[in-house]
Amino acid sequence: MQLIRAFVVGGALCVIGQLLLDYTGLTPARILTGFVVAGVALSALGLYGPLADFAGAGATVPLLGFGHLLAQGAVEAVEEKGLLGALTGGFTAAAGGVTASLVCGFLAALFSRSRDQS
Amino acid sequence: MKTTKEEYAVLCKQALPHSPVAKDCAWAFCVGGAICALGQILLDAYGALGFEKADAGTLTSATLVALSAVATALGWYQKLASKAGAGTLVPITGFANAVVSPAIEFKREGLITGTGAKMFTIAGPVIVYGMLASTVWGVARHFLWG
């Protein structure tokens, strides 16, 4: 069932991140950046597409899926517009998620006070 | 499939081993898996409303980002993250948290140089290297398969 596959695959990708946190001491910023770049690489190698077909949101919600989205966007744009597509495809595909984050960040800052992080 | 929050917490507790790394991983698996399952429910719901696959995916991301922003503003996301570790970091909600959290925290330094700039502390590198990788792949694709 799709929901269970999403849960298990998504959970497993998070466990990989947790192992990196626990064993390598990489900072969260490095892990997020690494996951996105790894997602682009796995997508380019043709490995992430099948995983996304199998696991649905379990593969697209983790940041690896964000990398996959960028890579797919670049490929589609290159096929449509040639070399120019390499510059526009990634950001176009990512636009929704990135813009939503920025708008939400601004609104959250506007409507809430800074609190201490403890 | 129907489990209440309390039952889920009990199940998680039973499944939790005692070694710290195994415990961290169990938390990351349960919470990360749950966020992805929520994403799947949203994806199916948007699909059922008649959105195309790509649009349903974008709407799912945007919805998860908005939920994460609300949870971050209320301080809930940080509490969950202290237990769930990578389970809350790796999904797109973690990216949203990394944008929203400094946006709120640095509001005191102003909306431009505080909120506007600090939002990109973590999102910036993610976007820079993500775009770099996708551009390299796009160029390679153009010349190798063009």
How would you describe the overall organization of this protein?
The complex is a heterodimer of chains A (118) and B (146). Chain A has six helices and no strands. Chain A has helices at residues 2-24, 28-44, 48-55, 57-60, 63-81, 84-111. The model of chain A has no long low-confidence stretch (mean pLDDT 94). Chain B has one domain (5-121). Chain B contains eight helices and no strands. Chain B has helices spanning 5-15, 20-48, 53-73, 76-84, 86-89, 92-105, 111-118, 120-145. In chain B, helix 2 (20-48) packs across helix 3 (53-73) and helix 6 packs across helix 8. The radius of gyration of chain B is 18 Å and the shape is globular. At the A-B interface, helix 1, helix 2, helix 4, helix 5 and helix 6 of A face helix 2, helix 3, helix 5, helix 6 and helix 7 of B.
In short:
The complex is a heterodimer of chains A (118) and B (146). With 118 residues, chain A is an all-alpha fold. Helix content of chain A is 84%, strand content 0%.
